[in-house]
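C-alpha coordinates in:
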Protein backbone atom coordinates (compact mmCIF):
# COMPACT_ATOMS: atom_id res chain seq x y z
CA UNK A 1 0.00 0.00 0.00
CA UNK A 2 1.36 3.40 -0.94
CA UNK A 3 1.02 6.20 1.56
CA UNK A 4 -0.23 9.68 0.86
CA UNK A 5 2.53 11.95 2.05
CA UNK A 6 2.25 14.99 4.27
CA UNK A 7 5.47 16.77 3.38
CA UNK A 8 7.53 18.75 5.84
CA UNK A 9 6.71 21.95 3.96
CA UNK A 10 2.98 21.39 4.45
CA UNK A 11 1.37 23.40 7.22
CA UNK A 12 -2.19 23.40 8.43
CA UNK A 13 -3.59 25.67 11.15
CA UNK A 14 -5.24 22.54 12.52
CA UNK A 15 -1.80 21.48 13.79
CA UNK A 16 -2.52 23.83 16.71
CA UNK A 17 -5.01 21.20 17.89
CA UNK A 18 -1.93 19.21 18.98
CA UNK A 19 -0.65 21.97 21.29
CA UNK A 20 -4.23 22.56 22.42
CA UNK A 21 -4.60 18.90 23.35
CA UNK A 22 -1.34 18.93 25.30
CA UNK A 23 -2.37 22.05 27.19
CA UNK A 24 -5.80 20.61 27.91
CA UNK A 25 -4.38 17.37 29.29
CA UNK A 26 -2.06 19.34 31.58
CA UNK A 27 -5.10 21.13 33.01
CA UNK A 28 -7.03 17.92 33.84
CA UNK A 29 -4.91 16.97 36.91
CA UNK A 30 -5.10 20.54 38.21
CA UNK A 31 -8.90 20.56 37.94
CA UNK A 32 -9.02 17.09 39.48
CA UNK A 33 -6.94 18.13 42.51
CA UNK A 34 -8.82 21.43 42.85
CA UNK A 35 -12.29 19.91 42.89
CA UNK A 36 -11.83 16.41 44.32
CA UNK A 37 -9.13 17.00 46.96
CA UNK A 38 -8.73 20.69 47.83
CA UNK A 39 -10.99 21.89 50.65
CA UNK A 40 -9.50 25.32 51.39
CA UNK A 41 -10.01 28.70 49.76
CA UNK A 42 -8.39 29.81 46.53
CA UNK A 43 -6.56 27.68 44.01
CA UNK A 44 -4.59 24.64 45.04
CA UNK A 45 -0.80 24.60 44.67
CA UNK A 46 1.98 22.11 45.29
CA UNK A 47 2.80 23.50 48.73
CA UNK A 48 -0.74 22.82 49.99
CA UNK A 49 -0.36 19.05 49.59
CA UNK A 50 1.38 17.15 52.37
CA UNK A 51 2.51 14.28 50.18
CA UNK A 52 4.27 12.39 52.98
CA UNK A 53 1.17 12.05 55.15
CA UNK A 54 -0.99 10.71 52.32
CA UNK A 55 -1.73 6.98 51.97
CA UNK A 56 0.66 5.25 49.57
CA UNK A 57 -1.94 4.79 46.84
CA UNK A 58 -2.90 8.46 47.00
CA UNK A 59 0.79 9.48 46.99
CA UNK A 60 1.34 7.48 43.80
CA UNK A 61 -1.79 8.95 42.22
CA UNK A 62 -0.77 12.52 43.06
CA UNK A 63 2.78 12.02 41.80
CA UNK A 64 1.32 10.66 38.56
CA UNK A 65 -1.01 13.64 38.23
CA UNK A 66 1.83 16.08 38.89
CA UNK A 67 4.00 14.31 36.32
CA UNK A 68 1.17 14.63 33.78
CA UNK A 69 0.99 18.37 34.46
CA UNK A 70 4.75 18.81 33.97
CA UNK A 71 5.06 16.62 30.86
CA UNK A 72 2.05 17.98 29.01
CA UNK A 73 2.62 21.63 29.94
CA UNK A 74 6.13 21.22 28.50
CA UNK A 75 4.75 19.57 25.36
CA UNK A 76 2.22 22.38 25.03
CA UNK A 77 4.92 25.04 24.92
CA UNK A 78 7.17 23.04 22.58
CA UNK A 79 4.35 22.35 20.13
CA UNK A 80 3.07 25.93 20.41
CA UNK A 81 6.50 27.27 19.48
CA UNK A 82 6.76 24.96 16.48
CA UNK A 83 3.23 25.74 15.33
CA UNK A 84 3.68 29.50 15.65
CA UNK A 85 6.81 29.26 13.49
CA UNK A 86 4.88 27.26 10.92
CA UNK A 87 1.93 29.66 11.03
CA UNK A 88 4.11 32.74 10.48
CA UNK A 89 5.70 31.13 7.43
CA UNK A 90 2.37 29.91 6.07
CA UNK A 91 0.74 33.34 6.38
CA UNK A 92 3.34 34.65 3.92
CA UNK A 93 2.55 32.04 1.26
CA UNK A 94 0.08 32.25 -1.63
CA UNK A 95 -2.04 29.57 0.03
CA UNK A 96 -3.34 31.87 2.76
CA UNK A 97 -5.68 34.20 0.83
CA UNK A 98 -7.63 31.48 -1.03
CA UNK A 99 -7.91 29.61 2.27
CA UNK A 100 -9.20 32.54 4.33
CA UNK A 101 -11.73 33.46 1.63
CA UNK A 102 -13.24 29.96 1.50
CA UNK A 103 -16.11 29.65 4.02
CA UNK A 104 -15.88 25.86 3.88
CA UNK A 105 -12.21 25.81 4.94
CA UNK A 106 -11.39 28.99 6.84
CA UNK A 107 -12.76 27.77 10.19
CA UNK A 108 -9.38 26.05 10.66
CA UNK A 109 -7.80 29.47 11.31
CA UNK A 110 -9.60 29.41 14.67
CA UNK A 111 -7.33 26.60 15.95
CA UNK A 112 -4.38 28.93 16.71
CA UNK A 113 -6.65 31.20 18.76
CA UNK A 114 -7.95 28.23 20.76
CA UNK A 115 -4.44 26.98 21.51
CA UNK A 116 -3.12 30.42 22.48
CA UNK A 117 -6.06 30.98 24.83
CA UNK A 118 -5.33 27.58 26.36
CA UNK A 119 -1.79 28.82 27.09
CA UNK A 120 -3.24 31.32 29.56
CA UNK A 121 -5.09 28.49 31.32
CA UNK A 122 -1.87 26.47 31.50
CA UNK A 123 -0.24 29.41 33.30
CA UNK A 124 -3.16 29.83 35.71
CA UNK A 125 -3.36 26.09 36.39
CA UNK A 126 -0.30 23.82 36.08
CA UNK A 127 2.42 26.51 35.96
CA UNK A 128 1.07 28.44 38.93
CA UNK A 129 0.61 25.12 40.77
CA UNK A 130 4.38 24.50 40.77
CA UNK A 131 5.75 28.07 40.92
CA UNK A 132 5.52 29.51 44.47
CA UNK A 133 5.91 33.11 43.29
CA UNK A 134 2.86 32.85 41.03
CA UNK A 135 0.84 31.10 43.73
CA UNK A 136 1.62 33.81 46.30
CA UNK A 137 1.31 36.78 43.93
CA UNK A 138 -1.56 35.73 41.70
CA UNK A 139 -3.34 39.07 42.11
CA UNK A 140 -0.29 40.93 40.78
CA UNK A 141 -0.61 38.90 37.58
CA UNK A 142 -4.25 39.75 36.93
CA UNK A 143 -3.57 43.00 35.04
CA UNK A 144 -0.85 41.53 32.77
CA UNK A 145 -3.14 38.55 32.13
CA UNK A 146 -6.04 40.85 31.23
CA UNK A 147 -3.84 42.81 28.81
CA UNK A 148 -2.54 39.69 27.05
CA UNK A 149 -5.89 37.91 26.88
CA UNK A 150 -7.61 41.18 25.96
CA UNK A 151 -5.34 41.56 22.94
CA UNK A 152 -6.01 37.96 21.93
CA UNK A 153 -9.75 38.66 22.33
CA UNK A 154 -9.47 41.72 20.07
CA UNK A 155 -7.65 39.84 17.28
CA UNK A 156 -10.06 36.91 17.60
CA UNK A 157 -13.17 39.10 17.38
CA UNK A 158 -11.73 40.93 14.38
CA UNK A 159 -11.01 37.62 12.62
CA UNK A 160 -14.40 36.17 13.54
CA UNK A 161 -16.26 39.21 12.16
CA UNK A 162 -14.20 38.97 8.99
CA UNK A 163 -15.04 35.28 8.53
CA UNK A 164 -18.72 35.89 9.25
CA UNK A 165 -18.77 38.63 6.64
CA UNK A 166 -17.10 36.28 4.14
CA UNK A 167 -19.70 33.56 4.78
CA UNK A 168 -22.51 36.09 4.20
CA UNK A 169 -21.00 37.75 1.11
CA UNK A 170 -19.58 34.74 -0.73
CA UNK A 171 -21.82 31.98 -1.99
CA UNK A 172 -20.92 28.41 -1.05
CA UNK A 173 -22.50 24.98 -0.93
CA UNK A 174 -24.16 24.80 2.49
CA UNK A 175 -24.64 21.03 2.07
CA UNK A 176 -20.86 20.62 2.44
CA UNK A 177 -20.56 22.16 5.89
CA UNK A 178 -19.31 19.91 8.69
CA UNK A 179 -18.67 19.90 12.43
CA UNK A 180 -15.34 21.66 11.81
CA UNK A 181 -17.47 24.81 11.66
CA UNK A 182 -17.75 24.53 15.45
CA UNK A 183 -14.17 25.74 15.75
CA UNK A 184 -15.68 29.24 15.60
CA UNK A 185 -17.63 29.01 18.89
CA UNK A 186 -14.80 26.83 20.27
CA UNK A 187 -12.31 29.70 19.88
CA UNK A 188 -14.73 32.25 21.27
CA UNK A 189 -15.58 29.94 24.16
CA UNK A 190 -11.95 29.29 25.09
CA UNK A 191 -11.15 33.01 25.17
CA UNK A 192 -14.35 33.65 27.12
CA UNK A 193 -13.57 31.03 29.77
CA UNK A 194 -10.12 32.56 30.27
CA UNK A 195 -11.59 36.03 30.73
CA UNK A 196 -14.20 34.76 33.18
CA UNK A 197 -11.37 33.21 35.19
CA UNK A 198 -9.84 36.68 35.54
CA UNK A 199 -13.25 38.16 36.38
CA UNK A 200 -13.86 35.57 39.11
CA UNK A 201 -10.35 35.61 40.64
CA UNK A 202 -9.30 39.25 40.52
CA UNK A 203 -9.82 41.30 43.68
CA UNK A 204 -9.51 44.55 41.73
CA UNK A 205 -13.01 45.63 40.73
CA UNK A 206 -12.23 47.37 37.44
CA UNK A 207 -10.14 44.40 36.23
CA UNK A 208 -12.95 41.98 37.04
CA UNK A 209 -15.61 44.21 35.46
CA UNK A 210 -13.53 44.66 32.30
CA UNK A 211 -12.87 40.94 31.95
CA UNK A 212 -16.53 40.13 32.60
CA UNK A 213 -17.67 42.67 29.97
CA UNK A 214 -15.35 41.28 27.32
CA UNK A 215 -16.39 37.73 28.18
CA UNK A 216 -20.06 38.68 27.83
CA UNK A 217 -19.45 39.86 24.26
CA UNK A 218 -17.48 36.83 23.10
CA UNK A 219 -19.57 34.43 25.21
CA UNK A 220 -22.90 35.49 23.73
CA UNK A 221 -21.37 35.30 20.27
CA UNK A 222 -20.05 31.80 21.02
CA UNK A 223 -23.47 30.66 22.27
CA UNK A 224 -25.26 32.15 19.25
CA UNK A 225 -22.84 30.60 16.74
CA UNK A 226 -22.92 27.23 18.48
CA UNK A 227 -26.72 27.07 18.20
CA UNK A 228 -26.88 28.40 14.64
CA UNK A 229 -24.08 26.20 13.37
CA UNK A 230 -25.36 23.08 15.11
CA UNK A 231 -28.81 23.54 13.56
CA UNK A 232 -27.25 24.16 10.13
CA UNK A 233 -24.92 21.17 10.41
CA UNK A 234 -27.62 18.76 11.56
CA UNK A 235 -30.02 20.02 8.88
CA UNK A 236 -27.31 19.54 6.25
CA UNK A 237 -26.51 16.08 7.55
CA UNK A 238 -30.12 14.88 7.60
CA UNK A 239 -30.46 15.98 3.98
CA UNK A 240 -27.33 14.02 2.99
CA UNK A 241 -26.77 10.28 2.64
CA UNK A 242 -24.80 8.54 5.36
CA UNK A 243 -22.03 9.92 7.51
CA UNK A 244 -19.58 12.65 6.41
CA UNK A 245 -16.25 11.74 4.81
CA UNK A 246 -13.82 10.11 7.23
CA UNK A 247 -11.57 13.21 7.53
CA UNK A 248 -14.55 15.10 8.99
CA UNK A 249 -15.77 12.41 11.41
CA UNK A 250 -13.48 13.26 14.39
CA UNK A 251 -14.88 16.80 14.43
CA UNK A 252 -18.33 15.44 15.34
CA UNK A 253 -17.19 15.34 18.97
CA UNK A 254 -16.18 19.03 19.09
CA UNK A 255 -19.63 19.75 20.49
CA UNK A 256 -18.39 18.40 23.85
CA UNK A 257 -15.58 20.94 24.51
CA UNK A 258 -17.84 23.74 23.26
CA UNK A 259 -20.38 22.86 25.96
CA UNK A 260 -17.67 22.54 28.62
CA UNK A 261 -16.23 25.98 27.91
CA UNK A 262 -19.59 27.73 28.01
CA UNK A 263 -20.55 25.86 31.19
CA UNK A 264 -17.32 26.78 33.01
CA UNK A 265 -17.65 30.38 31.78
CA UNK A 266 -21.17 30.52 33.20
CA UNK A 267 -19.99 28.97 36.45
CA UNK A 268 -17.21 31.54 36.83
CA UNK A 269 -19.50 34.44 35.97
CA UNK A 270 -21.84 33.28 38.71
CA UNK A 271 -18.96 33.59 41.19
CA UNK A 272 -18.14 37.04 39.82
CA UNK A 273 -21.76 38.19 40.24
CA UNK A 274 -21.96 36.76 43.76
CA UNK A 275 -18.73 38.48 44.81
CA UNK A 276 -19.38 41.93 43.36
CA UNK A 277 -23.18 42.17 43.36
CA UNK A 278 -24.08 39.81 46.20
CA UNK A 279 -26.38 37.76 43.99
CA UNK A 280 -27.23 34.27 45.23
CA UNK A 281 -26.07 32.34 42.18
CA UNK A 282 -25.50 28.93 43.78
CA UNK A 283 -28.57 27.38 42.11
CA UNK A 284 -27.67 28.95 38.77
CA UNK A 285 -24.10 27.60 38.94
CA UNK A 286 -25.41 24.17 39.88
CA UNK A 287 -27.87 24.05 36.99
CA UNK A 288 -25.33 25.27 34.44
CA UNK A 289 -22.78 22.60 35.35
CA UNK A 290 -25.19 19.69 35.83
CA UNK A 291 -27.27 20.29 32.69
CA UNK A 292 -24.10 20.72 30.62
CA UNK A 293 -22.54 17.54 32.00
CA UNK A 294 -25.74 15.59 31.38
CA UNK A 295 -25.83 16.83 27.78
CA UNK A 296 -22.17 15.96 27.28
CA UNK A 297 -22.66 12.46 28.64
CA UNK A 298 -25.33 11.40 26.17
CA UNK A 299 -23.78 13.29 23.27
CA UNK A 300 -20.34 11.72 23.81
CA UNK A 301 -22.00 8.31 24.06
CA UNK A 302 -23.93 9.01 20.85
CA UNK A 303 -20.84 10.35 19.05
CA UNK A 304 -18.72 7.34 19.94
CA UNK A 305 -21.50 5.05 18.73
CA UNK A 306 -21.45 6.86 15.37
CA UNK A 307 -17.65 6.60 15.22
CA UNK A 308 -17.52 2.88 16.06
CA UNK A 309 -17.06 1.79 12.45
CA UNK A 310 -14.62 4.66 11.83
CA UNK A 311 -12.37 3.49 14.65
CA UNK A 312 -12.53 -0.12 13.51
CA UNK A 313 -12.08 0.47 9.78
CA UNK A 314 -9.90 3.62 9.64
CA UNK A 315 -8.42 5.08 12.81
CA UNK A 316 -6.78 1.93 14.13
CA UNK A 317 -5.38 1.10 10.69
CA UNK A 318 -2.63 3.74 10.91
CA UNK A 319 -4.20 6.63 9.05
CA UNK A 320 -3.36 10.18 10.01
CA UNK A 321 -4.82 13.54 9.12
CA UNK A 322 -4.86 16.76 11.10
CA UNK A 323 -8.52 16.63 12.04
CA UNK A 324 -7.82 13.50 14.13
CA UNK A 325 -6.31 15.79 16.77
CA UNK A 326 -9.89 16.78 17.47
CA UNK A 327 -10.37 13.42 19.22
CA UNK A 328 -8.29 14.55 22.21
CA UNK A 329 -10.29 17.63 23.22
CA UNK A 330 -13.67 15.95 23.94
CA UNK A 331 -12.15 13.65 26.56
CA UNK A 332 -10.19 16.53 28.09
CA UNK A 333 -13.40 18.54 28.30
CA UNK A 334 -15.39 15.69 29.81
CA UNK A 335 -12.75 15.08 32.49
CA UNK A 336 -12.51 18.77 33.42
CA UNK A 337 -16.27 19.33 33.70
CA UNK A 338 -16.56 16.02 35.54
CA UNK A 339 -14.29 17.48 38.24
CA UNK A 340 -16.77 20.35 38.71
CA UNK A 341 -19.63 17.85 38.97
CA UNK A 342 -17.74 15.87 41.64
CA UNK A 343 -17.34 19.01 43.74
CA UNK A 344 -20.80 20.50 43.26
CA UNK A 345 -23.12 17.53 43.25
CA UNK A 346 -21.87 13.97 42.97
CA UNK A 347 -18.71 13.05 44.96
CA UNK A 348 -19.10 9.49 43.73
CA UNK A 349 -16.53 6.84 42.76
CA UNK A 350 -18.35 6.67 39.42
CA UNK A 351 -17.54 10.32 38.59
CA UNK A 352 -14.03 9.83 39.99
CA UNK A 353 -13.56 6.88 37.66
CA UNK A 354 -15.03 8.72 34.65
CA UNK A 355 -12.57 11.59 35.18
CA UNK A 356 -9.57 9.26 35.36
CA UNK A 357 -10.74 7.16 32.41
CA UNK A 358 -11.30 10.25 30.25
CA UNK A 359 -7.83 11.55 31.11
CA UNK A 360 -6.20 8.21 30.22
CA UNK A 361 -8.10 8.05 26.91
CA UNK A 362 -7.00 11.61 26.08
CA UNK A 363 -3.37 10.76 26.90
CA UNK A 364 -3.52 7.58 24.81
CA UNK A 365 -4.98 9.38 21.81
CA UNK A 366 -2.42 12.18 22.18
CA UNK A 367 0.67 9.98 22.12
CA UNK A 368 -0.67 7.81 19.31
CA UNK A 369 -1.43 10.85 17.17
CA UNK A 370 1.85 12.56 18.07
CA UNK A 371 3.77 9.49 16.92
CA UNK A 372 1.88 9.41 13.63
CA UNK A 373 2.20 13.18 13.19
CA UNK A 374 5.97 13.12 13.71
CA UNK A 375 6.38 10.12 11.44
CA UNK A 376 4.34 11.78 8.69
CA UNK A 377 6.32 15.02 9.01
CA UNK A 378 9.54 13.04 8.61
CA UNK A 379 8.32 11.45 5.38
CA UNK A 380 9.72 13.22 2.33
CA UNK A 381 8.66 10.97 -0.51
CA UNK A 382 6.07 8.39 -1.44
CA UNK A 383 7.00 5.03 0.02
CA UNK A 384 5.27 1.82 0.92
CA UNK A 385 4.52 1.94 4.62
CA UNK A 386 2.08 1.51 7.45
CA UNK A 387 0.82 5.07 7.84
CA UNK A 388 -1.33 6.92 5.35
CA UNK A 389 -0.65 10.61 5.85
CA UNK A 390 -2.80 13.53 4.80
CA UNK A 391 -2.59 17.20 5.72
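Residues out:
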Amino acid sequence: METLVMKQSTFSPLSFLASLGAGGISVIPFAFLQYTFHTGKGLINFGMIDHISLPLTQQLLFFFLEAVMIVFATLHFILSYQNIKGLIGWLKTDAYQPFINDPLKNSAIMAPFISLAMTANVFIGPIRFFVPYMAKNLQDLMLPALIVVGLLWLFLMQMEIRLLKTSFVKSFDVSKINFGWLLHPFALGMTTVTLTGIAAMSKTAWISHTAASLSAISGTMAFFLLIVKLISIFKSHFEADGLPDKQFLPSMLIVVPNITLLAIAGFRLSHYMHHYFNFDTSMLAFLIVMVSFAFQTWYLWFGLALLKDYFRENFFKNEFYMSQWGLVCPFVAYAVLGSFVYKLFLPSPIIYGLIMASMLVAISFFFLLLWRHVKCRATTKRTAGAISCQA
